């Protein structure tokens, strides 16, 4: 039988500098960074507080404990972190029940990585309950494993999530490519020793050594990722 997959070097990571690909979720694969901010504004409005738009860049891309904790302190809202975390996750789940738009190029990239059997992990600061719901749209089949923010001792910007993904796949972080959309996620990936492709969503991300910044996921494919890894030699 003739394969319908076009030739692109080896079909696996063997023989390539690229051993695995790690993908962030919110703002990278799914267009949901705005959803989180809308939910945060709604929850705090119900508590009698208005969020300042400038705070959006502070809370984007980070763990729930950091973003929620910052908003409690900034507003002086009379609510505890555990209670607020539940309200935010509940509100977000309701949002993505109605619509979960993918970022341009996301579906094509996931299909290509699967077709060429590239080990791929979803690495997010979101909680497991949120990741599992999003995976129903993205497709569980595209990921060898997923790492949630509430499953590691320290989440982004610490390297723990990406180190856990590498350990789970049995690969060297230095030979893994990470696609991220926020400075927080980029910091986590770089601290783990990974090669980073940044696709900024909310705030700007400057190019740097070991980091490639692109305007859209539409320009990222397997050839691009392998080329990024080759540049580090």
Automatic annotation (TrEMBL):
One Pfam family this sequence matches: Hydrolase
InterPro entries registered for this protein in UniProt: HAD-like_sf, HAD-SF_hydro_IA, HAD_sf, PGP-like_dom2
Protein name, as recorded: HAD family phosphatase
